[in-house]
Amino acid sequence: MFRERNPTTGDGYIEVQAVQSGDEAEGKNKELTFNKANVVSRRHTYPFHFHVPEYANSGHCKWIYSMSYGGGLVGGDTISATVKVGPGCAALVSTQESTKVYHCNYSGETTQTTSYDIGDGSLLCVLPDATVCYKDANFNQTQVVQMRPSSNLVLLDWMLSGRLALNEFWAFKRYKNSIEVYVSDELIIKDCTDLADTPQLTVSQGMQHFHVYGTLFVLGSGLQFLAQHLLGTYARKKNYNDAHDQNLIVSISPTQYTVNGDLISGCYLRFLASDMKNAANVIQEITSSLVEILGGDPFERKL
Q1: In this structure, what are the phi and psi dihedrals at residue 164, rounded to the nearest 5 degrees?
Q2: Mind spelling out the 3-state secondary structure of 159-191?
């Protein structure tokens, strides 16, 4: 029987740099060509852990898994992690399973802060499994991204309504997620999701029959093929008589920012799905165009 551990503070740091070798750089196109990457620094403290499998994929992209020992995040945990990707290389940050956030007693809060630093001409894909907040969980997550004008970013953040087998539907106390993206120290994106019951409306009532919620950011000149693919798939105008999908809602917008004369473009996507099957359709649209670059699909045999 699983015995819940006491809340604790954990942190981690990992740095990926391009390997100086005779290997030929590889990439999807000339705008997104990178060298073989290697981990040059890694440290972590319990309960947090960075796992770097040796044979997770083929190709030059380095795969990194963030993990928490003890089955998930206990109420009151404080986690802080930093991922740094050096110039000219690519990295994937994922998880081996869903991030479980257990209940918080009294007024306690579980916090997780992750900082990402992406070097010139590099690619970072943050493609984790969904977060699952258990009943009475109180989760506050912050993700901060530092980019350069030539950096490339794919950042997916998504969550499930709870443990469906136990009839937990949006039964947490609060879920707060803040995402900030900086280019050359200039803030270009600040996105915040804050879900909690109010006297007028509960989260469960507001979500109705939807059980999956997600957001996606795609930024960088080397990722225009992905942004255009998603825009072409989900931004198409529907005819007046087209049937409305009651199980999947996707909203997408192109994005453009100018920082010190440099244009940073991409797209911003949000989705609501009634179940994992419908959510998987969106996830697969995202990852299918990235498999060649990543050297594999991080959601293979998961969805």
Answers
A1: -65, -35
A2: EECCCHHHCCCCCCCEEEEEEEEEECCEEEEEE
Which residue matches tokens 């004008």?
149
| Cα separation, 255 vs 20, whole angstroms | 35
Other beta carbons within 10 angstroms of residue 85's beta carbon come to: 28
Distance CA 51, CA 64 (A): 6
DSSP character at residue 239: P
The reported pTM is: 0.93
Tell me if 282 sits within 8 A of 271, measured CB to CB.
Answer: yes
Tokens found for residue 266: 């991409």
- From first to last of its 303 residues, what are the pLDDT tens digits of the chain? 445 667 788 999 999 999 865 455 555 455 568 899 999 999 999 999 999 998 878 889 999 999 998 778 998 999 999 999 999 999 999 999 999 999 987 768 999 999 999 999 999 999 999 999 999 999 999 999 999 999 999 999 999 999 988 999 999 999 999 999 999 999 999 999 999 999 999 999 999 999 999 999 999 999 999 999 999 999 977 666 666 789 999 999 999 999 999 999 999 999 999 999 999 999 999 999 999 999 999 999 888
Q: Running DSSP on this structure, what letter comes out for residue 20?
A: -
DSSP code string of 75-105:
TT-EEEEEEEE-TTBEEEEE-SS-EEE----
Sign of torsion over alpha carbons 49, 289, 57, 273:
positive
d(CA 166, CA 151): 43
Quote the CA–CA distance of 102 and 72 in Å, as a whole number. Answer: 7
Tokens at 91, concatenated:
């990295």
CB count within 10 Å of CB 300 equals 9
Strand, helix or coil for residue 215: strand
